[in-house]
Amino acid sequence: MTDESKRQGFEALVLPHLGAAWNLARWLLRNDHDAEDVLQDALLRAHRFFDGFRGTQCRPWLLAIVRNTAFSWMEANRTTVPLDEDGADRGVGGIDPDNPETLAARGDERRRINAALARLPVEFREVVVLRELEDLSYREIAQVTAMPVGTVMSRLSRGRKMLGAYLADGKEKV
After folding, report:
1. pTM for the whole structure
2. All domains in the chain, ordered by first residue
């Protein structure tokens, strides 16, 4: 594979999934700056090992690299991840800007959900993010996290229950 064909293949297969990669890094690390560093390192790793990529499912492959890079970074830099200042979801559209009441209500609801999601332990938060926000299948989540599908299903179920309980108790840190 020539350098040019590698670059073109990487751009065509990997770059469309940058949003999902950023979202996963952001939710795992809960800090924009750290997520940017991890995402950059993950993309460098993905590019370096792109010649070894075999298959058609680039998204799970990239997200597995991002996940592993994030956990390595957390291990090397700190034992716990601080809570985000506001839990705001960056770059989410679809809100009618002409209706301030709807905008305010959705913003409050989004902050409540983000705060509750941030309270989840990382092993549950990652599967909830991959399933509910990134819409990966159980099998794809199993590939990304290197765990059996049954474990994915169990963690997703427990994570959803915890998320619901956090939302019901109304004690999210908004």
Report:
1. 0.66
2. 1-81 (1.10.1740.10), 97-174 (1.10.10.10)
